[in-house]
Specification:
This protein has about 350 residues and is α+β, with helices and mostly antiparallel strands. About 25% of the residues lie in helices and about 40% in strands. The strands form 4 sheets. Strands 3, 4, 5, 6, 7, 8, 9 and 10 form an 8-stranded antiparallel beta sheet that branches. Strands 14-15-16-20-19-18-17 form a 7-stranded antiparallel beta sheet, with helices on one face. It has a 3-stranded antiparallel beta sheet with strand order 1-2-11. A hairpin with a 2-residue loop joins β18 and β19.
Length: about 350
């Protein structure tokens, strides 16, 4: 009986030791993974702004702010929504990037607030000529926020592409979590924040930190001059022109949207624009356009004498309103460079 017990105990002990060794190795591996900090480097920027992440399929999209000189990667199935540039009377600009399952509700009352129910949202904020000039100033500003009740935790200073950045975590309404960093560069206050619930927002935030790079704004456009106007287009892009069969217009392709150059503006307004829905007058760059909608797209009309220019956003047949808003903003960025110059006098 003793010999049979001994024969049973030895294999059992060996099995237990094997489980402990394998399990311990897995546990140590997991600790090392969880303790690995976000890598923030000063690697030379590639001209095509390729992803710095190991899984380019997941984080293949790039948020690029040319005017303020920075970019970072975000998940490929997330969408930029409600992008704002040059708000009237304000030196601020901001954008939102939302996950496909993003859902929030607004609570009305004496102190209204929004509650994240599911998904995640990245908030990108830039302010020109801020009152804060140092990281210490930002720390003092955030101290005021904490004193008024904000739940900032684990505030620390980290390096983001060689710059000191203030980073902290926080908790939101309804059990959501958040991560935030802010820094000063080129007389700009840049803040990037992510709040999330039900997904790995911390992993997305770490990827933003590791792929965030400063890029000195440089001229990446060439001036297109024709038909009495100039406009800045991406280098290498050649507009194609085609005579319209439906009126006195030349159709000109653009990187986003298109342009109808009209040689009889009165005819065009009577037979085309009269069918659009007028929205507003909007000054973009140096030019004031009349904005219309037709078929879910925005159209921008400018007339000088009896010559007209109608810019429109391409229609992709998609019901994704987020996509349409994003392309409208891209077209408006092009229109900022539009200038009517007329024709040389002979």
């Amino acid at each position: 009986m003793k010999n049979s017990q001994k024969g049973f105990i030895v294999p059992l002990l060996l099995a237990i030791i094997a489980v402990l060794v394998i399990g311990g190795g897995f546990y140590i591996s997991q600790i090392k993974k969880s303790e690995a900090p976000a890598t923030v480097t000063n690697e030379t920027q590639q001209s095509n702004l390729q992803s710095d992440t190991s899984d380019s399929k997941i984080f293949s999209e790039i948020y690029q702010d040319i005017e303020n000189g920075f970019y970072f990667n975000f998940p490929s199935d997330w969408s930029i929504v409600q992008p704002k540039t040059g708000l009237k009377g304000s030196p601020e600009s901001y954008s939102y990037i939302q996950s496909p399952d993003f859902n929030q509700i607004k609570h009305e009352g004496e102190e209204s607030y929004t509650e994240l129910k599911q998904g995640a949202e990245i908030f990108v904020y830039v302010q020109k000529s801020p009152s804060a000039k140092t990281i210490k100033d930002l720390e003092e500003f955030n101290k005021l926020g904490r004193d008024s009740g904000s739940a900032f935790v684990d505030e620390r200073i980290v390096k983001v592409d060689g710059k000191d950045a203030l980073l902290y975590d926080y908790t939101g309404y309804g059990g959501s979590s958040g991560h935030h960093f802010e820094l000063l560069n080129n007389n700009r206050w840049i803040r990037i924040d992510i709040r999330h619930k039900g997904l790995d927002g911390k992993g997305v935030f770490d990827t933003i930190l590791s792929t965030f790079k400063f890029k000195t704004p440089s001229k990446t456009t060439s001036t297109y001059t024709n038909h009495g106007f100039t406009i800045e287009l991406p280098k290498g892009f050649t507009p194609k022109e085609e005579q319209s069969e439906g009126g006195p217009a030349t159709m000109i392709s653009l990187p986003v949207g298109g342009l109808a150059y009209v040689t009889d503006a009165l005819f065009w307004e009577k037979y085309n624009i009269s069918n659009y829905t007028y929205v507003k007058s909007q000054k973009i760059g140096e030019t004031t356009f009349k904005v219309y909608t037709a078929g879910g797209s925005n159209l921008y009309w400018f007339k000088q004498g009896n010559v007209g220019y109608e810019f429109s956003v391409q229609k992709f047949g998609s019901t994704n309103d987020t996509m349409n808003v994003d392309y409208t903003i891209q077209l408006e960025n092009l229109l900022k460079t539009f200038k009517f110059v007329g024709w040389p006098q002979s």
